[in-house]
Amino acid sequence: MTSSKMPSIDVLIDQYLNYLLIEKGLSKATLTSYSTDVIRYQQFLQKKGVRRLSETDTPLILKHLIGLRNSGLGARSRARHLVAIRGCYRFAVHEKFLKHDPSRLVDLPKIGLKLPDVLSVDEVSELLSKPDTSKPVGARDAAMLELLYAAGLRVSELVNLKLQDINLEAGFVRVFGKGSKERVVPIGLHAQTKIGFYIQNYRKITLKNQPSPYLFVARAGKPITRQGFWKLLRRYGDQTQLPKNITPHSLRHSFATHLLEGGADLRAVQVMLGHVDISTTQIYTHVTRKHLKELHQKFHPRG
Description:
The chain is mainly alpha-helical. 56% of the residues lie in helices and 4% in strands. A hairpin with a 5-residue loop joins β2 and β3.
């Protein structure tokens, strides 16, 4: 069943690509690749007379992939196409245009998953030290960056936090993730301190007596937008001059990787990230295995 609000394919693709740019922070090259793949699928659907995505599209996705194979496209390239197409359908489900994702029934041999750049602990510390906390905007930005890393939040979760969602005394934040699923994530002393400092000293100044339920606010009491956060993160990332593409997801991935490298249980990390399926969290385990191998080689008498 397709929602009556389902936009045309070209409009949905524009929304999807904007989501990848802002929410996922994909590089220009990756975004171009995704755009090319989904537009090719769109052209295939148009030839079939299909103008909107539907929950019954599984046979169409298969036919498209078979067509790509018959045109000489290799398994790796077809897998890349499927990833882009799946993302588009998942976005449609996320936006409640579809109830079910027809691409979930289509599978290809896994060729390997590539994580975004993961920052080291020192690199994270350098990034988090960049905001000038003597100024209202800097104090807010410092609290946002610290919380994003401390709780492994998605940027959409961060900007939608309400003041009532944070409990500094108990040291946790209540998060409403994908599908409005609630989870409670502990935060450390650094995050508690920076958030407390921002609330006590600068939040009211930023609000200028305007009421707002949101924890992190911009002008006129409005919440920070995803685009606004992306811009400020890029600015601080440029100041670090690190040879890595720093995105909001970089801090989320670094959060998970650092926990696992420190010995955290995979299922505990799954809960904190808000992953429904632990297989999603397991993409980090290859990083952990590499870390363990390095430790073994360094410290084991026969390493």
